[in-house]
Structures are given as C-alpha cells and as structure tokens.
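Morning - H79 inputs below, output right after.
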Amino acid sequence: MKLNHWFILNLFIISTLFSQSVTAQTMDQMWDSNVSGKENPNLQWFKDAKFGMFIHWGLYSKIAGEWNGKRYYGSGEWIMNQAKIKVADYNKVASTFNPTGFNADEWAQLAADAGIKYMVITAKHHEGFAMYQSKVSNFNIVDATPYKKDPMKALAEANRKRGIQFGFYYSQFQDWHEPNGGRNSWDFDEAKKDYQTYYREKAIPQLKELLTNYGPLGIVWFDTPGGMTKEQTQTFVNELRVLQPKTLFSSRVGQGLGDYKDFGDSEVPSTPIKGAWESIYTHNDSWGYIKHDMNFKSSKEIIQLLANVASKGGNLMLNVGPDGDGKIPEYSVKFLQQTGKWLKVNGESIYGTTYGLIAAQPWGVSTSKPGKQYLHVLTRPKNGKLLIPDFNVNVKKVYELTDKKELPFKKIGKEVWIDLPLFNQDAVNTVFVIEYAGTVPDYSLQTPITVSSQFDENNVDAVFAQTTGNAKIQSLTYSHYYGDWKHTTCITNMKDSTDRATFTINVTEPGDYHVKAEYSCPQESVKLEGSLSINNQEFLFRTLRTSEFDKSSPLLFIKHTVATTTFSKPGIYHIAIHPLQNGKELFKLKSVILEPVK
Ligand code: H79
C-alpha cells in the first residue's frame, strides 16, 4: 500500500469509522455506551469482570510475519492481505499447521493466574480459516491440517472449569478465502460478489455451529461489519440469539445492535463512559503472532492500563498471540502472571467497580464502589501529601487496601489531604481507599487540573481545554506499523489568532516551573509563532517540526519547552494558547506539561 493511501485511511476514513470526535462535555452529556437503547439483562457479569483475555490464533500464527523471505510489521493476522497471498498458496499453510504444543489447560490456567475473567478467541479471522471442527467448510483445523483435532472443545472446557467466561471472535463479513466473502480483491472480483450468499452459506451456519457445539458462550465477538442493511443485521442477530439468548454480542456486529460498546483497536476514551464497554489492546504491536515483534508491555504498563480503563468505567481485553506451535509467547506468560500477582491483592479496586468520581490527578486515577473511592496511586507525591480536590462529603476513614492500616487525613474546605505512608517508589500501583457517607459530585471536566511540585511532571491534557473560535478537541487515529492503531485526543484547528485553548489549573505550592507544549507539527506548520499566557504573563515561541515532509507520516509528538515561570502563590491560574498569525494550524496540541524546576 502506498504511503499516501495510508494517510488518507489513517487520518480520515478510520477516524470516522473507529473513533469519535470529542468536545468538552460535562458528565450528563457523556456518551452512554448502551448502543442498542435497552440494556441486555445479562450484562452484569461483563460489567464486573473488568479484565479479559483476547487470543488471536490462526494460520497467520504459523506464517509469523514472514512470507517468501520478506518480513512484515504490524498486524500479523493481515499478512494474507498485506502480501496479497493467493487462496491457493494460503491453503498450503494449512497442510503444515500442526500446533502440537497447544495445551488448553495451560492457557486457561494462565488466564486464571493473571486474574482474567473472560476469554475470547478467534474461531475464524479474516483469513477465513476455522480454528474448530466445521461441517460448513473443510477449510478448518480438523479437516485441513495434520493436527486433525478441535482445540476449541478443550479450551471451552478448561475455561469453564476455572469459572472463566468463554467466547468466540468471528469475522462475520471479511472472509478472504471465499469468492463471496468481504475484501479479497486479489483473488476475486469485488463486482461479482454476492455477500448474502456468503452469509447464508458460510458465516451464519458456522456461527450456529459455534453457538451449538461449545456449551454456553459468554460472548460472540464480531468485527468489521459489512454487506448488510440494518434490517438484515437485525435478522442475522435474531437468528443467532435464539440459540443462546444469554450470550453477549460485541458492538461490531454493526448497525448499533450489539450489547456493549467496543472502542477502536487500542483506544481508551479520554473521559468516563457510562454503560458497558471494553477497550481492546494487544500485548505487543500485532494481534496475531509475529516472530520479530518483541514490543511487549511490562506488567507495570498492563496494570496501569487496566486501572486507567477501569477508572473510565470499562473493561480491558488484552490480546496475546500464540505461535504456530500453540505456545503463548514467554513474555506474555511472564508479564501476565506478574499482573495476576498484583490483582490477587488489589483486585477489590478493579473487579466490580465503576468509573472514578475523582478527575485524573498527577498521582493517578480512581475507581468506585458504593461509599468507596479507590485511589490508584501510580506516582507518590514526594512529600506524601495526597490531594483529593472537590471531595465535599463526610470521610469516615482512609486506609491502604492491602494492609487495611488507617491513615491520617485532613479536610480543608472541599479538599481532602491524606498523609501517605512511605512506600516503595518502584511500586507500580499502590491502592488507598476512602470510605465516605454522602454523595460525591460526579466526575467533571470543569474541575481545575492539579499542578504540584511534588511530581516530576504535571500533565494537563487536551480534553480539559475550553476552546474558542475554530479550535476543536478531537480524537485522532493513526498508526505507525500496518494496523497498529493509536488514538490521541488533541486540540486541532487553532489557525487564527482568535482561536484559543484555555486550561484552568490549581497550583498547590509556589515554585518555578518549566512549561512544555506537547504537540505534533507537520512540515506545513513549521516555524509558526504561538503565544502561551499564564494569567497576564505572555510567552512567545516558534513551532518545531515533528513529522516527515510527507504528509502521510503518522503523528509524532515533541515536548517543547516554551516558558519558564514562577507561581508566587498557590491558587487557580489560567493557561491560554493561540497562534500569532492567521491561516495555518499552529500544531496538534496533546497536552501542556508543567515541570517543577529543580
Ligand atoms: O483482529 C484485529 C484486527 O485484525 C481487526 N480488529 C482487531 C481486533 C481489524 N480488522 N480490521 N481492522 C481492524 C481495521 C482495518 C483497517 C484497515 Fe488497514 C485500514 C484495513 C485496510 C486499511 C490497517 C491498515 C489494516 C490494513 C491497513
């Protein structure tokens, strides 16, 4: 695929398909993830589960990111498409697929050890290969490979034995193996395709097999809908639902007919979302196994991601990509087991929670249960004084989750200040609990962002800006490798001197700070002048280039120090940014960072 093509897809088509533009919203305007209007009564287990395991496993796992001596990067399960492999050649991969290293109990036990509550595995991805015994098409693991067994039978059973909900991913529209399936234009003529025939002859009967032969399923995870009207999708859903009325369908069944909302691949919304929803991430860069993809998230990154997603009210379903032998990569095993150790003692702050009522703070995030706020302290304030702004209720007690030891706290006006004990600076997430009576005001984007010299960095994110003129707050989607999507909320479209973004901060101690603008700036915006003011003091700067000359390059961000300033007393300040000239976007602003000068 040419680079130009990439850009158009990355920034435009995909951003409308897989993400939404955001504007500064208040809580009652926040998007409710309940996509189908009435909530499925079987959602409770899903809402409580918080942590799922996604597994991408298919013939692409055997191909492992290399075809005819050429290595591919990004989404390994897309290699048939990326390398435009003919169906006839792809069939030959099946004849060598023999994952004798597969052990269902090992996988399910890993999930259990990791603290995972549901597992969704690819029964059939876009390549069209059924990883289970299918009578509908012999392009399946029992009939087309030397392995000759159905791994899904054992896996369903191994999960059920451990109380883990089990479900299947099924690519309902894209099927690159079938003449009438979606999106293979290198073997088949798009104009001659009859999607309804494909649905009738393959997708629907295979889904019926899955919903009939593997016991109760927690989820059927659909992906990339296409080729059906709303009415056709409704008929499709009804026809499948009767087989297992309790099974949840992911929102990617299409046409707003799912039971819960999935965000884009690797996307966490920037504010809390009500209702049932899920963020999906993969452990490294690819979903399907690629032997040269070694960018595995550490357990610290997984735990912090899980806390962040839970603080917005959602589930994290984290993907692993077993190889062609049936083994889960060793770093996935190791880092998931470490994650499980943390969850074993801190699980109460994740499972069964809803989004945190305390806006994100420089120390971390929060999650809620009735009468309780769990404070996920990812960064300890150096002096141990933890601020909870806007918490004007009767605080009964504060304690550390693991040892339940009560901590001293003070209520000053609407603020609560907690004296934290000394704890290991390397701790990835230390959880404290506030028990209270009364009603905490709901999460609000209007709460001033805390800025404190007790932290090396204070991030003030784009989503908290007030904008005027053309300036907009938008979620941008892009990828570095093929299909490894990234999502960042930025202030865009600040192109005239009257276009402004303003942030309100609450500085807790006097002191000197560096002020950094974190932004992405393509060639066309290089060397524009901007103004950043803090109350009445103005600082001027000129933009630095972050992107390649070619417009097609994905977004890269720089942290550009644009000012040094002194806050002589604590209190509320306003930071405003605008271009000095008219006509061109100044940059895409991701955040303003205040860094205490040491
Ligand atoms: O299974 C994983 C992906 O393979 C699947 N969803 C996750 C869970 C997925 N299928 N399609 N997409 C995600 C979005 C597809 C985006 C596309 Fe492209 C843009 C297809 C063609 C252009 C990305 C870039 C993939 C190929 C080029």
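Note: DSSP finds eleven helices and 30 strands in the chain.

O.
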